[in-house]
Amino acid sequence: MNELLSVFSWLLLAGGLLFFFAGSVGLLRFPDTLSRLHALTKADTLGLGLVVAGLALRATSLLEVAQMLLIWLLVLASGATACQLLARQAGEEGEDD
Question: What is the pTM of this model?
Fold first, then answer.
């Protein structure tokens, strides 16, 4: 059973890294500001969630899991707020690039 949890943890961690990579590629490749923000925030949010899930399977106590979940929730809130502010600023300036 322990080996199965370890394999599943590695799969979640690899999936999270894949989403981080996809978000970074989207940031570099998409043409306008709003597309870049969308790619980055969605992929990074899901990537961090998968990384937290993978690390939670390796945690030794519920306190560690609770701390990781709290960090993930704070990143969710701050990412959404920052994305909204950046998109609003880009819209006011009429930025297409």
Answer: 0.82
